[in-house]
Amino acid sequence: MANRAGCGWQAGDVGILTFHCSDNYGAMLQAYGLKQCLRSHGVAADIVRYEPPFLTGRHWRLPYVPIQNVWSLAAMGYGFLHNLQAGAQFARRRKNMGRFRKTYLIDKGQPRVLFLPGLRKLPYRRYVVGSDQIWNPAITYGLRKAYFGAFAGARDAHVTAYAASLGGASLPEKYRQEFSVLLRNLDAVSVRETGAVPYVQQFFPGKVETVLDPVFFLEKEEWEKVERAPGQGKYILAYTTEPNRQMAEYVQALSRKTGLAAVELRAAAGRDAGVAAAAGPAEFLGYIHHAAYVVTNSFHAAAFSIIFEKQFLVFAHSTVNERLASVLAVHGLEDRLCRNGGGIDAPVDWPAVRARTAAAVKSSREFLIKHVAEGLK
Question: In the chain, what are the domains?
Answer without folding.
Answer: 3-70+89-217+360-376 (3.40.50), 220-351 (3.40.50)
